[in-house]
Design brief:
21% strand; alpha/beta; single chain; three-stranded antiparallel β-sheet; five-stranded mixed β-sheet; 11 helices
C-alpha cells in the first residue's frame, strides 16, 4: 500500500469522478483507475461504485474513509514535522561589525547552540554597509551593527536595539592617559591612535570628535578586535563603544582599560537587524530572541560608573 493510493481515493471521493480526479492529479484516467483497483485488490474491498455517470464511494468504502483520512492526516503531520526540523537545523548566518560584540556574541551563540545542537552558526565580520547589502540580498539572516543615536534608520529592515552605550577611549593600563578620570578630545592629538578604517561608524565619530584634525601618528585597522589587541601590545589607544570594551577578555585580564571622553552627548547603539519578510526561518527567529535575552542580561552589567575600577579619583 502506498500513500498516493490513499490520496487518489480521497480525490475521487471529493470530486465524484475518476476523470476529474485524474485531471487534478495530472494522471491519465486509465492509470488512476488501475492504481485504485490495485488498492481494492490489496484490501479485498470494492472502495468505489463505478457507473457511467461517475464514481462514488461504496458502502464499504465509506466505512473505511475515516481511516483513510486519518492516515493522510498523519502523513501530513509527519511531513510538516520533517520540514520544520529541516528549517530548525539549517545554517544561520550572522554578520557583525567587530566593534560590536564579543561580550554579547559569544555567550549568545553558546546559548543558542545548546538549544539547537544541529544548527550551524556562521559569524561573518564585515563593515556596516556590506552587512546591510548582504541582509537585503538574503545572504545573511541577522546583522549586528553600530548606530549613532540620531542617524536615520535604514529602510527595509526590522531593527532591534540591543545595547546603548557611549564612546570611550580604550587604552593600555600603563598609558599616561589612564591617569585621567576623563580624557579630553585634544589629548588624542598627541597620542598614537588606532583608528577604524573608513566605513565604520567609529571612524566617522572620531573624525567628528577631532574636528578634522589628525593625531601625531595613527594606525588603521579593520575592526575593533584587532584594535584592542594592538592596544594590549602598547601600540596606542583607540576609540570604541563602551559595550565593546567592558567585559572583553582583554579588559577582564587587565590587558586593556578604558576612560570616558569629555563628549557627554554622543550615544552609540548596538542594533540587531534582519530583512523585513513575511516569514522568518525558525532558527533565525530563535537566535534573534537569544540576542535579545542576552542583551537584557548584559544591560545591568554594562551600566558601570564612568570611572572604571582602578581609575584615579
Amino acid at each position: 500500500m502506498r500513500t498516493e493510493q490513499l490520496e487518489y481515493i480521497a480525490a475521487v471521493t471529493r470530486l465524484g469522478s475518476l476523470r476529474r480526479a485524474a485531471e487534478e492529479l495530472h494522471l491519465s484516467q486509465p492509470a488512476l483507475s488501475e492504481t485504485v483497483r490495485n488498492l481494492e485488490r490489496e484490501l479485498g474491498v470494492d472502495l468505489l461504485e463505478r457507473k457511467r455517470s461517475g464514481a462514488r464511494m461504496s458502502a464499504e468504502g465509506r466505512e473505511l474513509l475515516p481511516h483513510i483520512i486519518n492516515v493522510l492526516d498523519a502523513v501530513d503531520r509527519l511531513r510538516g514535522a520533517a520540514g520544520e526540523q529541516h528549517r530548525i537545523s539549517r545554517m544561520v548566518r550572522v554578520g557583525t561589525v567587530n566593534a560590536a560584540t564579543v561580550p554579547l556574541l559569544i555567550p549568545t551563540v553558546r546559548e543558542f547552540r545548546a538549544a539547537h545542537p544541529m544548527t550551524q552558526v556562521e559569524v561573518v565580520g564585515a563593515q556596516q554597509s556590506d552587512i546591510h547589502r548582504t541582509l537585503a540580498e538574503g545572504g545573511l539572516d541577522l546583522g549586528l551593527v553600530n548606530h549613532l543615536d540620531g542617524d536615520d534608520m535604514p529602510a527595509g529592515f526590522e531593527s532591534t536595539e540591543l545595547l546603548r552605550g557611549r564612546p570611550v577611549l580604550c587604552l593600555h593600563p600603563d598609558s599616561p592617559l589612564a591617569a585621567l578620570p576623563v580624557v579630553p578630545a585634544s589629548a588624542l592629538l598627541d597620542e598614537p591612535l588606532i583608528a577604524m578604517r573608513s566605513g565604520y561608524v567609529m571612524h566617522r565619530y572620531v573624525r567628528r570628535l577631532l574636528e578634522g584634525h589628525g593625531p601625531v601618528f595613527s594606525y588603521s585597522t579593520d575592526g575593533a578586535e584587532m584594535g584592542k589587541l594592538m592596544v594590549a601590545e602598547g601600540l596606542g589607544c583607540t576609540v570604541l563603544p563602551d559595550f565593546s570594551v567592558v567585559g572583553d577578555p582583554l579588559e577582564r585580564r587587565g590587558a586593556i582599560t578604558y576612560r570616558p571622553l569629555d563628549d557627554d552627548t554622543t550615544r552609540v547603539l548596538l542594533m540587531l537587524r534582519r530583512r523585513r519578510a513575511e516569514s522568518v526561518p525558525r532558527a533565525a527567529h530563535d537566535l534573534h530572541e537569544a540576542f535579545v535575552r542576552r542583551s537584557a542580561a548584559l544591560g545591568g552589567s554594562l551600566s558601570r560608573p564612568d570611572r572604571p575600577t582602578g581609575a584615579p579619583a
